[in-house]
Design goal:
The protein has 2 helices and 7 strands; from the N terminus they run E-H-E-E-E-E-H-E-E. Strands 1-5-4-3-2-6-7 form a 7-stranded mixed sheet. The longest helix has 7 residues, at 17-23. A hairpin with a 7-residue loop joins strand 4 and strand 5 (70-75). It has 95 residues and is mostly beta strands.
């Protein structure tokens, strides 16, 4: 069961198809606190939400065991770059 809390950070630039591929399937951590998620909360990029042709939002599922339902949030490109850190084995991805 999923809980979509309505947090859709769509302000800012959406992802294009090339940029969204860099994030596809990535493990992520929060860079800063927002809406009940502490800094360092981990999650997984679950997929995308297409808002228009060649415009996408990033869909993240959080590993937040304290909730009965899984939490999903959507991010524009600017919001993802501001709030999220892509990680691999505890290290930040370097592009």
């Amino acid at each position: 069961m999923y809980k979509f809390n309505g947090w859709m950070m769509r302000n800012g630039t959406p992802f294009d198809e090339a940029a969204i591929q860099e994030w596809s399937g990535a493990a992520v951590q929060t860079r800063k606190y927002f809406l009940g998620l502490a800094v360092g909360t981990t999650g997984q990029v679950l997929g995308t939400l297409q808002t228009a042709p060649q415009q996408y939002l990033l869909l993240v599922e959080w590993d937040h065991s304290e909730q009965a339902a899984r939490r999903l949030d959507c991010f524009s490109r600017e919001a993802a770059e501001s709030y999220l850190l892509r990680v691999a084995d505890g290290q930040e991805f370097v592009s």
